[in-house]
TrEMBL record:
Annotated GO CC locations: nucleus; site of double-strand break
BP GO terms, sorted: DNA damage response; positive regulation of double-strand break repair; protein localization to site of double-strand break
Pfam family, one: Ank_2
Name this protein carries in UniProt: SLF1 protein
UniProt keyword terms in alphabetical order: ANK repeat
Originating gene: Slf1_1
Species, as recorded: Oxyruncus cristatus
Amino acid sequence: VKSMDLSRRSWYVLQGLVEEHLFTDVITELAAGQKYRIPPVQLLHSLLECFLLGNTDAVFFAKLCHVLYLILQHDPPWKSLSMLKYYLDLLQCPICKRGTWSLIEMLVRSCLYCKTICHVEPVSGREDEQKIVHKTLLKFFLDLVKAEVEFLKKSLVEGINSQHQQVMPQTVLLKTFWLGSGTSVLFTKHINILADWVILSHRELNRKNDSFRCEIAGLLNAILGTAVEYWIISGFLMDRNVFHQIADDLAQYLAISCDDFSICELKMFICAIPSLWLQMFVAEAVLKHMCLQRNIAVPTEPLCLQKIVCSYLPALREIALHETKIHKAKKKKIGQQPCPESQRALQMLNGDKQNQVKVLPDLPDLTFNKLTAKAEVQTAHTKEISYLLAEEVYKRNIKGETALHKACISNNVERLIQLLSVPGTDINVKDYAGWTPLHEACNHGSTVCVREILQRCPEVDLLSQVDGVTPLHDALSNGHVEIGKLLLQHGGPVLLRQRNSNGKLPLDCVESVAVKEELLNLVHPEESIESFYECIEQEFCSQLRELCFILFNKLLLNFCSVYNLSSPLTLTLREVACSNVLPVLAYGNSKMKNTFSKDWLVDTYFRELETFQKLPQFLQEISGNIVFFPEEQMKALLATLKTMIEAYQLF
């Protein structure tokens, strides 16, 4: 369908309907028109503003989305620079109009942090509906930038731009995350923030797995992956090797940011990365970090097939052996274990945050009951006092501590109850170092405060941690056993399985074997300390071996896929991958050599292809590691590699 602008008369008619607030008629006319016509940005902004302010329903928004996708289908941003400007004008808040990044930031703030978007008052009873709308707008942005990347890939493979470009391809993606075409740095402030969103979304998913959180995590992951693939394709177009920027900057940042994830959480995070390129580089960054922690040397050369098979595979074998030796050593003696020293002072802005000697003693139940009764009487506030309290809830000191933190530090239960009575109070609020009010109460021995939080706040996060230090770690490392019991009674056995950054379990913070058994029996009656540790270590070693296998699997198979080293098979293993932009045998080597006659890319490709041809020689070495990794999964990997080799030989 040929695109044509709205006539001046049609524009006046629709504008008149907007001025009369007949928004439903306008959107119906746009969505059901027999001929596609590109609407003015001002008209779409009026409709979007109407919906964001809560003046329409879901049917209205569905029609608006239909119009947006029609525009993307018929007039994509790569059609012309004027169309690119059209999308950049469109993709911003219709009221403040501060650009595309500001709109994305606003939508993520709503979906991820449950914050009210700008200029919009929350509509009672429609909060979930509004969040779904914001998620849908994020999805449209993702579909748009993915379409841009697909167009660039197609252009590259078909040789539309055979000459190297001097500037980055002009896209909505570029203008959103890199602002201009002259940038040579991948890890900009906006990419950094996007990476933080990805990590946070997975933290939230680990804390509470629901369908909405899962969708948001997937969207943010996909946007980051699309940005990475755009950066790689732009590098190809500009004859620039950008792999090191992804591996050394972004992937390392992601690996360090999820350092406190459990093995299961880390495995889920890596497997959830949709971009094969980014997934591969993150897997390498995680593996490097694991080797560094265990003093296992790996070469510093860029990632290549030779390095994966000849360096990383033996390193993974060493990691498995290293953990097995530690497990055997722990079996010999499971008695008193050293109490890990608190790392808090290193993370605060100034001064020693915690006084770990002068802490308030655990209070008996009688005193607790008296204080609670007194506090309950004092929670009757006037509206004026409630307003003042609401203001105080959000105030922070230089360390980022809120009134909730300070009440828990000082064991001021009356003050705590007052603050918790304020609507919207977030009990999981963190100071600048990441500590929650519950952490503070546990660290300072504020038993009454802990009990109030557990009773009044079902949403409290008992697994919140800094460097792996959970509230239970905090309580037991400071000798507050009664608080530890309260936490276990409320949170169950999962609390005992959490490790801090030093690999310590909460029970490792307790010196007395009798106290350990008492705590353990609260959640595992009649189980011995020895059997508990034995079970935990076996589970840990098994999970670690599985993680090692996944890392190796992602490195090896993703590398072969993105470099298209076995073209017939890789096309069936992935839905979308950047391998299209690399030399594809099906398109003919001569064509690619003419396109990239003196390119580093061609040299790299044929060097990796030469190594791939030697892969049959490595199969025996890979097979020798089956004993260290999950047997069935390793056999499946070997079968896949053999099929890839056979496919290449037949090709």
